[in-house]
């Protein structure tokens, strides 16, 4: 009598692996047949839920709440129609997001579709939005190919810039600091081997080379890496004054903690997605002072700060310091375009493309279907993640470098 | 080199801690628990909640969480697994049945966590200070996890090999059909082992919550890693899980330092493959078809 024959074990493992590969849960909300139907598919579960649950979904909820509080979306004739929301969980699977968007368009026949979270997912659904004639206000999608996509999908709008925008802004800051004698020209970079990391490191290699910066350490790590000690040690040994990580949120959190433990004190510390998350500030307190990342907020802009307060009050948590405000602004643009042209998707798309809107970002106008009034670099200063790049834009703060060493433990 | 080894051992300690519970559940109770990682994450959330809301530090939290986890494991086995075990006496399909049942359980636990804690990344700072160990700077919380893994591993190993009670447990792992002949209550022992496994999962979760960011959907990652280690170490073999876990940690760190961080995953599976080719029953497992 054998307990574990190899066959039964293999069969068990095979079954286990197959089932685990398909993990996720479905959640579907009910709908009604009145008023303006707005639908979206978003990652409520799975790997992307952490990002979508901060940058995208809370802003959808806030906006819908505010619009409905005011009586609904205003139509050109001045009447108001409340928003009816249809929400699908894409379970962080690109097949699922495509299926859900197709369903929203064909079966539910919603009036407008809001975008999913993430560069890859926005690209996955772009052909569908195009085919069914829905405007796509892609926010959490960083891509250098936006000009190309705009040609291919006329109703697509790209609101968060491209990798080059961010890496060029960073290399400009580094050049300025080098010229001022604050740092040397050596840069150590690590990046996650996935969409965002690959895009950014590709852009960074070029931007840094163009700027004459020397990449002395340049490695990629797989998604899900939890121990960064070897990389931090190598980066420290490389002698670079600047450490850059194009990282995902769990990596960003881990890097922050492990850099403290390793007493790794680069003069410029630049981390990826997650640096602007409220939980990052909550967990690390004062220690985040001086850390740089993508995005940023002009804290003297009252409209933005008012939005942040409303967000915190309604959702119960503060928005992040990068994409959240852009997500909210994109919804305001949609609201305004509907007010001008009603539920005619052709006209609304044309209006989004050419019109000028009053949003939390101030007067907002897209250039070639892309938002260019963006902050490409920010830094934690006195508990706020303030915008520092582009430095010539109104509202930019000056970066405070070198970053102070971690407080003694 | 020495500091790399130490970093690797500490990383491996966590892996081992996580895998030991699964090896108990699978090796002794013969329940292939796909919801293992979810149990672990649940404990991580519990530790987070205790720490942030009540200010109870995770080490004290263990005192609360571990007995609860044991009880939960005990109840789950009684309610969900018992009928499967009873049924399988005739059909002999316990493994497949338990996989399907725990696959369902996975969603139940995950769903509860999503409702209760949301989908956001969660983390807190506890004992995040560097301690110098032979020239390597190691975070105190990781060192603690390593120490806990070694202590739990050694204690359980001692109990299993040196006590009468441990012999009972091993008896049902080796031959559940013959064990009753010598007066062993297979059911009760299997149930106990399952509950013990749940408790180990919870202790792993609490440890991990101290230094790693987690969210409600991350359980699968841990189940997968634990599964690899359990199979590598030999099913049901605690020492195997400990050694395989440490080995994996050291290899990942060595590869990340001297080869390329991008190849850590590849290295993990390469070793896995090599072990399976060389010793199909795992490092410490008995030869196949024993």
Provide a descriptive summary of the structure in words.
- Chain A is an alpha/beta fold and 409 residues long.
- Chain A folds into 2 domains: 6-161 and 302-365, Rossmann fold (3-Layer(aba) Sandwich), CATH 3.40.50.2300; 163-298 and 375-389, Response regulator (Rossmann fold), CATH 3.40.50.2300.
- Helix content of chain A is 43%, strand content 17%.
- Chain A contains 14 helices and 16 strands.
- Chain A has helices at residues 6-21, 49-55, 57-69, 94-106, 119-132, 146-152, 163-179, 195-211, 229-237, 249-261, 278-284, 302-315, 323-341, 345-354; strands at residues 36-42, 73-74, 80-81, 83-89, 112-114, 136-138, 156-158, 186-192, 214-221, 242-246, 268-270, 292-293, 356-359, 362-365, 377-381, 384-389.
- In chain A, strand 13 and strand 14 (362-365) form a beta hairpin.
- Chain A is globular and about 65 Å long.
- Residues 24-33 of chain A have low confidence and may be disordered.
- Chain B has one domain (14-239).
- In chain B, a hairpin with a 2-residue loop joins strand 1 (130-133) and strand 2 (136-139).
- The model of chain B has no long low-confidence stretch (mean pLDDT 84).
- Classes of the chains: A alpha/beta (409), B mainly alpha (290).
- At the A-B interface, helix 1, helix 2, strand 9, helix 9 and helix 10 of A face helix 1, helix 4, strand 2, helix 8 and helix 9 of B.
